[in-house]
Every structure is written in C-alpha cells, then in structure tokens.
Amino acid sequence: MYGKKLFAALAMVGLVGACAGGASPSPSAPIKVEIVSWWTTGGEATGFNKIIDLFNQRNPQWQAYNSAIAGGAGSAAQAVLQSRVLAGNPPDSFQVHMGHELLDTYVTPGYMDNLDDLFGANNWTSQFPKGVLDIVSANGHYYSVPVNIHRANVLWYNKKIFADNGLQPPTTWDAFKTVAETLKGKGITPLAVGDSGIWTSGQVLETILIGTLGADGYKGLWTGTTAWTDSKVTQALDTFKMVLGYINPDHSSLTWDQAADMLISSKAAMTIMGDWAAGEFINKQFTDYGWAAAPGNDKIYDALADSFGIPTKAQNKDAIKAFLTIAGSAEGQDLFNPYKGSIPANTTAGSPPASAQQYTDYQKSAMAEWKTDAIVPSLEHGAAASPSWRGAFEQAVTLFVANPDVSATQQQLASACKDAKVCQ
Amino acid sequence: MKRPTPDRLLSLVVIAPSLVAIAVFVYGMIGWTGFVSLTKWDSLRPDYAVVGLVNYAAVFTNPRFQIDLRNTVVFTAFFVLSSLIIGLTLANLLDRRIRGESIFRNVFLFPMAISYIVTGVVWKWLLSPSSGVNQLFGLDPATNRWFTDPTVLSISPESPAGHVLADIGLGFLASTNIGIPVAMLSIVIAAVWQMSGFVMALYLAGLRGIPDELREAARVDGASEWAVFRHVVFPLLLPVTLSAVIILGHISLKIYDLTVAMSPQGPAYATDVPANFMWQTTFRDGLYARGAGVAIVMLLLIVLVVVPYLVWTRRQEVEV
Amino acid sequence: MTVAPSPAADRRVGAPGATRGHSSSGRRPHVGRLVLYAALILFAAWYLAPVYVLLVTGLKSSHEVSLDRMWTLPTTLSFGGFADAWTALAPNFLNSLLIAGPAALISSFVGSLNGYVLTKWRFRGADLIFTLILFGMFIPYQAILIPLVQISHDLGLYGSLQGMVLVHVIYGTPITTLIFRNYYAGIPTELIEAARVDGASFSRIYRSILLPLSASGFVVVLIWQFNSAWNDFLFAVTLTSHDNWPITVALNNLAGSFIVDWNVQMAGALIAALPTLVVFIFLGRFFVRGLLAGSLKG
Fold first, then answer.
1. Do C127 and B118 touch (CB under 8 A)?
2. What ipTM was reported for this prediction?
3. C-alpha angle C49/B256/A74, rounded to 5°?
4. Contact call for A280 and C249, based on CB within 8 A
C-alpha cells in the first residue's frame, strides 16, 4: 500500500540528488576563471574580450571568461556581487569603479587583497599618474588596477549650430548663460539632459562644483576640508538653478544617450556628458560634434575608471594576478581602450600596433590632457565618495531638479557629509 | 481517544514538507530580516550589534520614504479601482455571445503572460512625451508629460482650503506628501494594461457562475438591465471582487520590476516605490540594516491589508 | 447583424448568459451590438498597441531605430534584430524551460496534495495552517533575498537550475495550495466519505477520485506557475550562475551599459515572451474554465 508511494518518493529524491551531483571537470581541461563585469555589448564588450582572449592565449592552463550582467554601471551586478561576497563565494575578479566605490564597499570591510606587490613588480607606481594612484589606494596600499580612464566633465556641442549662430563653447558659467540665451531665442534647447537615472543631473552639478570651487576645493568636499556650507557651494547651487532653466522639459524621461541624440537631430546644441558620448555619436554616424572642457573646468580632468582587484576569497588568485598584469599593461590597455572610447590609465600606453584598432582624435587629445591636467575624482562615477554618500547626494539633486530650493538642498548636502562620517 | 490511522499520519507527512519550507523560507527569513533591521549593519561586513529602532527612525524621517508611501497609496487606489472597473466592463462585454469571443479574450488576457520588465520598457516608449501617444494623437508634449510630469495634485498651504485646514489643526494635510503625483498615473496605465485581463477572467468566471434564473426572475419582476446588474449580479460578484482586490492589492504594494523598467524614480521621486528604495538602500548604499527596516515596513503595510481579509475569509468559512 | 434571443439554448450550464434585454424595436439591438463591438475593438487596440511597437521596432535596422519614429513602419524589413536577439538568448531560453517546466509541474502536485489534505483530511488547526501558508504569497521577496542567498549557498544549490526550481516551488506553494484548496472544497465530501467507508486509502482516494476531477485546477496552476517562474527576474538575477541564467536575465543583458540597441532589445522581448504567450493562447479557455470551477474565488 505504501510501497508504491514510498518508492515514488525515494525515486524523486534520488532524481533530485543525481541532478544536484553535477559533473566535475576533467583534470586536463583548463581551469575556469570568472570575471564579472557589466560590459555585455558594444565596443566595451569587444574590447574587454580582447584582453581576455590575450590572457587565455598566453595562459592555456586557465580559461577566463566575461561573466557579464547589464544594468548600467552595475546596478543589477551590484546585488549579485554583494550577495556572493557576503556568502563567501566571490568571483575571481569583478569590475568596480576605482575609488571609494571599491574602497568603502569591499576594502574597508576586509574583502580585498592589497596589490602592492603587483604594482611594484610591474612598475606601475611610475606608469600611472599620481592622481590615480591616490584614488586607488587606502591606508597606503593599492587595491585595484584601473583598465581605462573616462572623463566626466566634457561639454559636447553641435558644431553647425554654433557656427550658424557665431557662438564659441562657453568657458565660464556666465558665458554659458549668454550662449544659452541666444540659443533659447532661436528655439534650440541649449543643454540636453537625459536624467531618467538622475546621475546625469548629478554630473552637471558635479561639473559646476568643480568649476566654482576649483580642483582642490572640489576634492576637499569629499575629504572634509571644504565645508558644504561654504558660500561657494551656495554659488554653485545658484548656477545649477540657472542652468536648469535651459534644459529640455522632458529630461526625466530620457536616458543620457537619448539626450545626446538631440544634438544629432539639431534639437539641442550642447550636452554635458562623459566621453562615452563620443561612442554614441560614432555609433549613430554623427561627425559634426565638437568638444571642450565643461565651463570652468579647463585643465581639470574629472576622472573615473573601471578597475579590477583580487577578492580575498577568490579561488584562482594566481590567474587573476596574471590577468591584472595584462590589463594594467600598456599592451593590454591599448587593446581595450580604442574600442571602449576611453583612454588608457597607464601613461606609457597610447600606441596600439598598426594592425589593431586605433584611437580617435578625441581620445588622442584626451590622452595629452591626461598627462598634464589636474586630476579630480568623479562623484557620480564612484571615485570620490561611497555609494551611500553618492545616494544621498543624488537624493538632494532629485528633489532640487523638481523644486530648486538652494538653502534646503545645501543643508541636505551638508548632512549627507555628516552621515558619511566625513564631516563633523 | 482514537488512535490516528495510518492514513491520517500519511496525510500529515504529505503536508509536512510544505509546512517546514514555509516555516523556514517565509517566517524564519522574515524573522531574520526583522532582527537585522534592529542592528547597525551598514557595510558588507555583517554587524549584528542591536541598536533598537534607530533604522526605522531614519527611514520614516527620510523625505524620499514619505514620498514613497504617498506613491504607494495613490498607485494602489488607482490601480485596483481601474483594474476592477475595466475588468468588470470587459467581462460584461464578453458575456454577450460575441463573435470571436476567444480572440478578444486572448487579446485582453495575453498581457498577463508578459514580464513586467517588458511591459515597463514598452510603455516607457508609448508614454514618452516627445513621441508615443502624444505623437499619435497630436497631443502637446509640454502639457502631456506623462511620467515625466512633476505635478502633484494636492492642497497648497496658501490656498483657501489650506488655510481652513491649518485653522482646524490639520495643516499637515496641505502638503505634496498628501497628494496625487500625476506621473504615477502613467505607471497605473501600464499596470492596468497588464492585469485587467486577469480581473476580466475572474469576473467572467464569476458571471457565468450566476444562474440565469436569478436574472430572469428579476427581469420578469420588471427590473431594468442596470437594476438587474446592480441588485442581482453585482452582489453575487462580491467574493470575486474581494479576491481580485487582495491579489491586485498585494501586487501593487510590492511593485518593483514595472516601475524600475519604466521610470525608476521620476521627477522628485514621483514614481519611486518602497521596493526600489529598499533595493537601493541595501545593494547600492550598502545599508543592510536600514534596507531590512524598509522591507519590514513594506511587510507591515501588506499585513495591514491582507490579515483582515484572511481573518474575514476564515470567519466566513466557519459560519458556513 | 441581429441576434434573436434564444433562452432555451442559453440555459446550458456554462454558456454565456442570455443577458439580452427585451427590446421592443428591432433596431435597438442592432445599434447596441455595433457599440458593443466598437468598444471591444477600441479596447483591443489599447491592448495591442505595445505589441505593434515591439514588432515594428524589432524589425528595424539599428540605424533606423529612434524614439521619434516609433510608430512608423520600417522602411526596410530587417531581421538583424531578431537574429542578434536569438543568438544572445537561445542558451538562456533552454535554461528558462528547465526551470519553469519542472517548477510548474512540481509545485502543482505539491499544491494539489496540500489542497487534498487540507480539505478532505481536516485536522485541528488545519484552517490556521492554511492561513499561515497563504500568507507566504504576500511577502515582498526583497525582504528575504539575502538570507535566501546564504541558505542556497549553504545547501550547495547556489547558482544551479535545481536551486531555482526549488525556490519557485517553495514560494509557489502558497498560491498553488490556495487554488487547489478552493477547487477541492467544491468537490462534495460525501464522495470522499463513501470511498473511505468502502475502505479506500489516502492515496487511492487521491488517485482514483480527486485526480481525474482535477484537470481544470491543474491547468490553472500550471499556467500560473509557469508564467510566474518564466517571467521572474529578481530570484533569477540573484541566485543563478552565469551558465544557468534564465532568459529574463539575458534579456536585461541585451541592454549594454551605455549603448542600447533598441531593435535587438524589442525583438528579444518578443522572443522572451513567446512561450508564455503561446501557453496563454492555447490554454486560455481552460484557464477561464478553471476559474469558473472556483479556483480563485474568495
């Protein structure tokens, strides 16, 4: 009577058990090395896979693969990553923005190995600019290898619109106002913004803060040496309020690339965006674009980078060390960056072999500036502050964009600094 | 006392795995999350030091969370009501011996099969002010801003009504935190598109369960079609309506995929929902304890709605 | 198009109600029917508009895809979008099948057995137990994500397809139990009592009496669970490893971090929606019949 039922139950258990068993890899097959990123498509995936292919070629005992989850700067990837790290099962390496996004999230709680030996062995302390070395280190130790550098404070403009109206890209925010007024009079949106993810508006405020406080003043905001209650911050917020009067009314329904497309259709004249915008223009076969530093940002490089480190509980540390060696080298960076649209962090790079993908004009000019400009860490892209501080900043910006209350927002920004335990 | 028969034992054994699973994976985990919400865990390194209700204070005083609560109430009210009305209407329309009934029924029902993410992406396009339905119907993008509209329909403190409220000590009601965010209504449109077919199916089943004799009897007594509906049909549909309200209600309280795909935050958080706030607090900001607090608050809201219903149905069955 | 009311034919059980009003003039039903169909068609247009946009965008080339030309038909039919989408999604399509299929099957049997026990083998506290189980379907899943990852890792199921099946079975138990409990509550207890008196056992009653009557219930539950498991994103993205990603995760990946090929994404969305759409189209009428039998009534 029960026999049949029991048998069936045991069979089911057995079936599940058998499936859960899984096959173990044969001893001669290469060991899989898992690298998590959010580069799923496009130039960035192509470029990254080139580094991976090179690594696999030179290290047949390993097989690295790009375990990518999309979501825009890792939003879905973050949840997966953190759950895994929490459970003690991190991937062999993962993409993370250089700076506080890595340091506060993974290094301070003790989940990453320091890379001092790797930096020493590869002589990276003299190949990466000091500004970058500062950003990737905590307590005097290095924790990640940046594979690229993007610049966030670039003003892109439609050359034809500017030429037709006799305009020059504005170098100060006052000049911006004049240019914007002219454009507005002609029925052209002066500044295209696509902030459905709010970070684009945050980025605009970031460039205004840099332009108003200067490189050192801006850096001080994130270390506690510049007070958020300073009058220059008030001035920056007033400028932000002014700028918001010149953007497209449907900004919160657009993504940054849809806003950039407004330049292509000549509906808008300018957009403030990182240099990945060039990739969008190239993709849409638009060539009549010009670039300049955002107003007030001349000779200041607002930097962000994608970087990789070694989780303390990673399975294949030797493999990752070899991988990072390639990724941080001039050779590796010249393979990746022409496709990505960014520039190499390694200053000795810049000359890919003739047979490989070459750098564009924008990238070449950016590389020259990278060597001489003052380098500041970007907030909106994880370098300047922890994700929770950035979240509080973005919350203040969200409310400001809908209702520009300068004093209330300044207070919110000041308390965000206190919550982050950087300000008193 | 009767010894339990082998069959009765077997019946308990059969249901036991479900009980254990629910005990662990529902109640156990909720308990764990509740515990975490009382700690000061705020980074990837778990910190189980208990600090009391600090996190809840931080959550409730956060202006974004207050906005989220408002959004949830508004979304739930409009979503549930619209789905019920449209579902009932469609069921009535389909209940009239239509040619091609199964085709229409499939058309109304199929959105249920589509994931919320797909729905959100497509409706984001359809309600995009610069194109979409505005383009199709020649509507002015400046006034029809759909989910980019920052307007919140509320009583302004400066208005006459606002002054009256202030006089009687209810001044706090005259703020945007007690209002209707117009942008949220666009999300409602997408959600109703997705779920009204399901409500229609429920009502269709309900309608067909009503014996014709009841309707005929009312008609013979001289009642109009509308009176028949109001006094005979609709009361008999109450159980179906209640089921639909509970199902729709709990979906709307934990809505996430749809808003994230369509409009994650909206202007001044007009389309932000608690589930999104919880996700970002936990996985973007790394504030695990605070995120757990948000999750528990979400749970409590659901409990407020669901538990009375569960108690009511139990009582109903006891009576029967 | 006139319809003569035929009460005799309409008294069949389950037939559409004969709700035609008695009107004196022959013209009113005619206009009424026109209005009826017009209303239905308008509604149908609302429901189908997104599908139109999905199709039309999926069939455009990536240069032509743009927000402001959303409604226009493609100038040239380009299947590149569908081809790219399929290449990207094919392996994950299989993963989704291997998750949603078993999950739907197993959880429907679990629900059926639970419903059977709770209605025909009542014990003290059975109602309370049922309510406690039912509550599980209302919880926000974000609230249990982190401990779930921890447990699935401890059980060695993290990243696997079996783990996903287990998760869907567990969290699907409340709704499947609800549906079957309501369904079996409608089956007269006398039937069971008579069998018991004749000496039939627990499993015999289930196999010989309940199961044959359960077809509609199973259809409703299978459709519901398959749909829910197939379209899940939250558990999928958190609990599966790279090789086992279901199609929802892969679909989300079609969006590059900055550049989005809308034609590929829309084509991919259609591909990802196809199985559940097919299930609904072919089994939709059984779904309604199942609901009629009381599956989800209060």
1. no
2. 0.83
3. 100
4. no
